[in-house]
Write a structure and sequence with these properties.
Length: 218
């Protein structure tokens, strides 16, 4: 039996994680937060003190790192047995993730780890290249976006709510820089995958986006 996959790709702050988790719960499907894999590698690189341009060392670390995911109320991630959930969501981690994710060698090492999440009864996969590279045969594909201004403001609120110090002007600059890097890279750039429907969530509520995605799958 072919296991169905719903891919949700898009830029930072578009709402991919929020919508993917909700839809996975409604469908009772598995969930892959592929960004957390690149984020975990970035944490490992920063912890060991490897430079972000030391490709051989980063690739080796990607091969060796052991990741554990626990999907409860929120996602818990262990890197080599240590809980790194608290560091996972910071902008420092996200920006470093976007740098290590641009290396084709790193992406090649992490490809199978992502494909392994495809288990019955189905999978919701969120990231940048879920519909284009990792699950090109997915029957359901969404490209979720929103204006850079709206995405920066959402990220700002999210960080403040978590008690993390944040600066809106800096977040806006970082989001735009990340958009440029993720879309402009040669390896698996952020793009609208073939066969995807585009949802612009700039003026939609979270529930409206969830409803639109559920309509597609049903
Ligand atoms: N349609 C929406 N309207 C308003 N806020 C949203 C919407 N979608 C997501 N958010 C909020 O924006 C923030 C970023 O969402 P998230 O799911 O982490 O985005 P992504 O995974 O695409 O980076 C979260 O705080 C989330 O609650
Ligand atoms: N499938 C994916 C997922 C993330 N990434 C990279 O990892 C970074 C962090 O991804 P994320 O999905 O956790 O980030 P947010 O969209 O939540 O900010 C992105 O900026 C991408 O560069 C990727 O290259 N491919």
């Amino acid at each position: 039996m072919i296991i169905p996959v719903l891919t949700i790709d898009g830029p930072s702050g578009a709402g991919k994680g929020t919508v993917s988790r909700a839809v996975a719960k409604l469908l009772d499907w598995n969930y892959l937060d592929s960004g957390s894999i690149y984020r975990s590698l970035a944490i490992a690189v920063l912890q060991v003190g490897i430079a972000l341009d030391d490709l051989p060392a980063i690739t080796q670390l990607a091969k060796e790192m052991q990741l554990g995911f626990e999907c409860g109320e929120s996602l818990l991630v262990r890197l080599n047995g240590v809980d790194i959930t608290a560091q996972l969501g910071t902008e420092t981690t996200g920006n470093a993730a976007s740098i290590v994710a641009a290396y084709p060698e790193v992406r090649a090492v992490l490809l199978q780890k992502q494909k392994d999440f495809r288990k019955a009864p189905g999978l919701v996969a969120d990231g940048r290249d879920m519909g284009s590279v990792v699950f090109p045969d997915a029957p359901f594909k969404v490209y979720l976006t929103a204006s850079a201004e709206e995405r920066a403001s959402r990220r700002y609120k999210q960080l403040i709510e978590k008690g993390i110090d944040a600066n809106l002007a800096q977040i806006t600059r970082e989001i735009e820089e990340r958009d440029r890097r993720d879309s402009g890279r040669a390896a698996a750039p952020l793009t609208v995958p073939e066969g995807a429907i585009t949802i612009d969530s700039s003026s939609l509520s979270i529930q409206q986006v969830i409803d639109a995605v559920m309509d597609l799958v049903r």
